[in-house]
Amino acid sequence: MHDHSTIPESIPYGYCHCGCGEKTTLAPQSFTERGWVRGEPIKYVHGHNTKLPPIVYEPGDTKVCVGCHMEQPLTSFSKHKRTRDGHLAKCKSCVAAYYREYYKGNKQKHLQRTNGWRENNKDAVRAIKRNRQARERKGIGRVTLAEWEGVLSRFNGRCAKCGSDENIEMDHVIPLARGGTHSPDNIQPLCALCNRRKSVKTEDYRGRFYSNLGLPLDEAAD
Question: Which structural domains are found in the chain, ordered by start?
């Protein structure tokens, strides 16, 4: 196990453990990961622990989790760039258990916050859903909300086949089932009815839309 002992015995009680000579404040609450005990002096003046030399591990080193107090391999701890040894003080299992308990105790608050964000960001939710569905169907690529909005803007928010502006959906020109990519250059806006009729056929209506507007294809692609 790596030796984490860095506190000189000469540092008096209530003073910063980095050796700067400044007094520390009392912990307002217990915080195991930081080593706080409510009402007791904290170890470091804010930011002073970063002045200490980093802890460098050797291959095969282990550390003790402050949650379960078990000595474990370094791979059992998530990396964290703001700690001296580059890893969290709690092992992955303890962190997961903490968040499970936190979610149980704050389920309604979490759901309200999530539902509120979903309600105010419907387009972003749809974009996330489309990307997830594409991954599930083994589609390669990703279409961001900004990219999809750019495509919609080029088509004035209308269906590329019939020109309707109702129930517009993202369609893959070359369907994912036929090897098409989930990327901006392979999508076109179609209304729900045209999208259902197209099904898994490879049909590109983008040229037809521009022709109906009287635009040359090379100008439309700019």
Answer: 129-220 (1.10.30)
Task: Give residues with Cβ within 8 angstroms of 105, minimum separation 6.
Answer: none
Mean pLDDT of 125-144: 83
The residues that bridge with 36 in the sheet, in sequence order, are: 31
Distances (CA, A) of 115 to 53, 118, 120, 126, 131: 44, 5, 9, 14, 20
pTM score: 0.46
Question: Which of 2-11, 99-108, 205-214 is modeled with the greatest confidence?
Answer: 99-108
Closest listed residue to residue 140, CA positions, set 178, 175, 182, 202: 182
Q: What CA–CA distance (Å, rounded) separates 129 from 131?
A: 5
Mean pLDDT over 7-26 rounds to: 81
CA proximity to 13, closest of 32, 40, 33, 52: 40
For a pLDDT cut of 90, what percent of the chain falls above it?
23
Taking the C-alpha atoms of 32, 34, 39 and 45 in order, what is their torsion angle to the nearest 10 degrees? Answer: 180
Cβ count near 119 (within 10 Å) = 9
Question: Per DSSP, what are the bridge partners of residue 73?
Answer: 62
Which pLDDT tens digit goes with each residue over 43-61?
A: 888 878 766 777 888 888 8
Enclosing H/E stretch for 191 = strand 187-191
Dihedral sign, Cα of residue 99, residue 104, residue 107, residue 108: negative
SS3 67: coil
Structure-model confidence comparison of residues 20 and 73, the more confident one: 73
